[in-house]
Amino acid sequence: MHKVTLRKTVLSVEEVFHEGGPVAEKPLLRGSIMAVIKNPFAGEYVNEIQGFQDDLKPLGLEMAMKLATALGGAGAIEGYGKGAIVGAAGEVEHGALWHAPGGYAMRELLGDAKAIVPSTKKVGGVGARLDVPLTHTNASYVRSHFDAMEVGCNDAPKADELALILVMSTGARIHNRAGGLAAADIKGEDGLR
User: Fold this and answer.
1) One Pfam family name from the record (predicted)?
2) Which residues constitute the domain of residue 93?
């Protein structure tokens, strides 16, 4: 068991009113939360790292709750995604440890979310930014919810840190016109359609 040492969190909310077309009656909200923590594996190769996923679960749930609250509550969330930026003394596999605790935290909070939580990760230096993908929470093939949010922090991650990220949105892209499966037509059987 490893202690999760949190240095800071960064919470960001965007209100999108239009993308050059008509102003929406209700803006799309997109938000991100980043937790910058010490990487317990930085600077050396450690073979057994899976246990750290369990250590991250409480942080994941706390982050999901804060982000959902900032966007109007769990009932308002229609899209989600996750990511990690690993400081230079770590390896991309350390970021992969965020898959389960980050994804399951959002799925637990949102209740019946069926779609896989899209993810991305990379090793980067201080100030690195990450484009984190979003998809619909219940059906991965809902094109209107395919989106991404760029996330970063000016002083993170330091070489011995991990920047763990969750993103959520309250709906489709403003002015989406790409067709495909509509959110209203989701069957909810398999997380895809």
Assistant:
1) AA_synth
2) 6-184
Ordered per-residue pLDDT tens for the chain, 193 residues:
789 999 999 999 999 999 999 999 999 999 999 999 999 999 999 999 999 999 999 999 999 999 999 999 999 999 999 999 999 999 999 999 999 999 999 999 999 799 999 999 999 999 999 999 999 999 999 999 999 999 999 999 999 999 999 999 999 999 999 999 888 888 887 888 8
Residue 145's contacts (CB-CB under 8 Å, 6 or more residues apart) are 78, 79, 134, 135, 136, 169, 171, 172, 173, 183
Decide the pairing of beta strands 79-86 and 129-136.
antiparallel
Residue 64 located in a structural domain: yes
SS3 label, residue 27 = coil
CATH of the domain at 101: 3.30.1330.110
The SS3 of residue 93 is helix
In whole angstroms, give the CA distance from residue 71 to residue 26.
Answer: 13
- Locate all alpha helices (DSSP H) within 30-157, ordered by sequence: 52-70, 92-96, 99-110
The verdict on pTM exceeding 0.90 is yes
